[in-house]
Amino acid sequence: MPASSRRPARLQGRVCRGSRAVADGVLTRAELRSAAWRPLFRDVYADAQLDVTHRTRCAAAAQLVLPPGVVIAGRSAAALYGATTVAHNEPVDVLVPTGQRFGPVSGLAVHVGAIDEVDVIRRQGIPVTTPTRTCWDLAQWLPTEEAVAIVDRLAHKHLVALAPLRASARARVGDRGWKRMVRVADLADAGSESTPESRLRVRIVLARIPTPVTQFVVEHDGRFVARLDLAWPHLRVAVEYDGLWHDDPEQLHRDRRRLNRLLGEDWIVLHVTAKRLREDFDGFLDELRQALRSRSR
Question: Which CATH superfamily hosts domain 208-296?
Answer without folding.
Answer: VSR Endonuclease (3.40.960.10)
